[in-house]
């Protein structure tokens, strides 16, 4: 501890006295722990890289990998706290766990896993999802937990009659740390449709499913975790849970927990997008938008998933399987070219140069088209992906136009889904964005504003992503002051947060609209490529 640094001394006291809050998020490729102080400032982080495994034609992670990864991420966090603050944390004001949403974790009466964890990436649930969408009158995506359960029922898998508990990855970890079988309402909204008025599973739809599956699987009310809204105490860390997370024995039991949440919900918190007429866009390997609704949609749309905020307010989600990976592949090629030319550039420098070039491109990308479909894309009607660059003979192939087309291409399928919301008359005052492609100031943010025809804000506060958002939800439980989540975020977390907002430029809006018309028409070329190559 540096006695000459008042801020360092204060941070050390916050940690030593157990006034910091801890959030842990299990993402698809990284498990991250984030420790924050009372003002939501980041005090330390820890992480662990991991990968899913494709086994027996299903994507999975072993439960051993879950715990090895959690222990490694937590141990790195503790090590960083010791190095940065000179103290060893033993307790926290509150804790919380979030994870990739959806998927399938089924347990028997003894708490034993009945089948390998089936993640959100699995697409073997087409028959079940279609039948449930028809039955429930709600779009049921392939990745939702109820789709996985019903597919197992349809396939008469031997383990189905033995199921006594079904949960998500976040719900599983929370259960093992606290003994409580609960879910935050946002995560629960990827398990089964939620009634936003009741902040619980839709009772009428639960009854419909129970009638359909009667005699084949126990009633959902007996299988599913209890639903809790943000700010509700969700149990305390048990002695067994403390030993699971921290085998060193330093971590003390008794720490209160926030309800376990999904990564979509923590992303909304991390971008202050939980109020009606706000939303957020997360751009990474995939890209998705979340828009908080003022009223129900008029009909079912396959492009839109209906989920909720961590407080239970209805949200329309546009989820695209393909995000910035193809853009990254082109950037990597340009980085390699710079080395071959004898003027090597760092990846960050390459991105900065390419993004800056895009700013001088023509508003419609000069007639160029770029498709980022490395994988199938349901919104675009594609079972598989074929990345393409397409142009007509009279298009203008320049570096600025090429890069603008690539950036527009990241937002192309997203814009198709957002157009459905626009046709529904959904109001949108501001979108918040986060993800690595927004690090180059004023470029991707500007083009996203054009694609959405709405202001797009980027906050520095969300730099730690979902783990930071989960830590904020834990701090919200610790506060216990009775403010609703929207007010809490506005007053206690984001009041002084640096925020950069890009308003849509009319020329860019018109240019992207022209690009999207060509993009939509050119999907036939994509489909032909999938069929032919």
TrEMBL record:
Transmembrane segments: none
UniProt-listed GO biological process terms: D-xylose metabolic process
InterPro entries membership: ATPase_NBD (IPR043129), FGGY_C (IPR018485), FGGY_Carb_Kinase (IPR050406), FGGY_N (IPR018484)
Family: Belongs to the FGGY kinase family.
GO molecular function: kinase activity
Organism: Microbacterium testaceum (strain StLB037)
Keywords: Carbohydrate metabolism, Kinase, Transferase, Xylose metabolism
Carbohydrate kinase FGGY C-terminal domain segment(s): 280-476
Gene of this entry: araB
Domain Carbohydrate kinase FGGY N-terminal as annotated: residue spans: 22-245
Name of this chain's protein: Sugar (Pentulose and hexulose) kinase
């Amino acid at each position: 501890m540096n006695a000459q640094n008042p801020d360092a001394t204060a941070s050390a006291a916050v940690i030593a006295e157990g006034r910091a809050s801890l959030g842990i998020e299990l993402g698809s490729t990284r498990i991250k722990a984030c420790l924050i102080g009372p003002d939501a400032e980041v005090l330390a982080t820890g992480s662990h890289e991991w990968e899913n495994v494709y086994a027996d034609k299903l994507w999975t992670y072993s439960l051993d990998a879950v715990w090895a990864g959690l222990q490694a991420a937590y141990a790195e966090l503790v090590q960083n706290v010791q190095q940065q603050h000179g103290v060893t944390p033993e307790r926290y004001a509150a804790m919380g766990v979030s994870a990739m949403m959806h998927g399938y974790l089924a347990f028997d009466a003894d708490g034993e896993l009945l089948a390998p964890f089936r993640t959100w990436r699995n697409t073997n649930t087409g028959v079940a999802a279609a039948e449930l969408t028809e039955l429930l009158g709600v779009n049921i995506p392939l990745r939702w937990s109820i789709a996985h359960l019903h597919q197992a029922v349809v396939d008469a898998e031997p383990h189905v009659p033995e199921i006594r508990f079904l949960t998500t990855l976040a719900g599983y970890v929370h259960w093992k740390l606290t003994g409580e079988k609960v879910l935050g309402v946002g995560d629960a909204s990827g398990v089964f449709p939620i009634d936003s008025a009741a902040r619980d599973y839709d009772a009428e739809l639960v009854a419909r499913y129970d009638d359909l599956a009667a005699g084949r699987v126990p009633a959902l009310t007996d299988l599913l975790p209890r639903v809790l809204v943000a700010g509700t105490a969700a149990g305390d860390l048990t002695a067994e849970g403390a030993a699971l997370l921290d085998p060193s024995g330093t971590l003390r039991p008794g720490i209160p927990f926030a309800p376990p949440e999904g990564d979509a919900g923590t992303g909304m918190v991390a971008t202050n997008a939980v109020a009606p007429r706000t939303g957020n866009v997360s751009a990474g390997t995939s890209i998705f938008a979340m828009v908080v609704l003022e009223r129900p949609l008029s009909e079912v749309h396959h492009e839109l998933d209906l989920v909720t905020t961590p407080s239970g307010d209805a949200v329309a989600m546009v989820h695209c399987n393909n995000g910035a990976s193809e853009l990254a592949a082109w950037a990597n090629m340009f980085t390699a070219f710079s080395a071959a030319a004898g003027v090597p550039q760092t990846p960050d420098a390459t991105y900065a140069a390419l993004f800056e070039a895009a700013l001088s491109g023509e508003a419609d990308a000069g007639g160029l088209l770029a498709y980022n479909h490395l994988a199938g894309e349901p919104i675009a009607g594609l079972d598989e992906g074929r990345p393409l660059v397409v142009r007509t003979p009279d298009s203008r192939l320049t570096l600025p136009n090429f890069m603008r087309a690539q950036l527009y291409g990241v937002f192309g399928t997203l814009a198709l889904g957002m157009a459905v919301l626009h046709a529904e008359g959904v109001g949108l005052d501001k979108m918040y964005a986060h993800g690595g492609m927004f690090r180059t100031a004023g470029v991707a943010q500007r083009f996203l504003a054009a694609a959405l025809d709405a202001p797009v804000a980027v906050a520095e506060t969300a730099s730690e992503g979902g783990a930071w958002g989960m830590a904020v939800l834990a701090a919200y439980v610790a506060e216990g002051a009775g403010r609703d989540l929207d007010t809490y975020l506005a007053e206690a977390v984001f009041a002084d947060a640096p925020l950069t907002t890009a308003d849509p430029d009319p020329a860019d809006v018109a240019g992207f609209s022209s690009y999207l018309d060509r993009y939509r028409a050119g999907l036939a070329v994509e489909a032909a490529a999938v069929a032919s190559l």
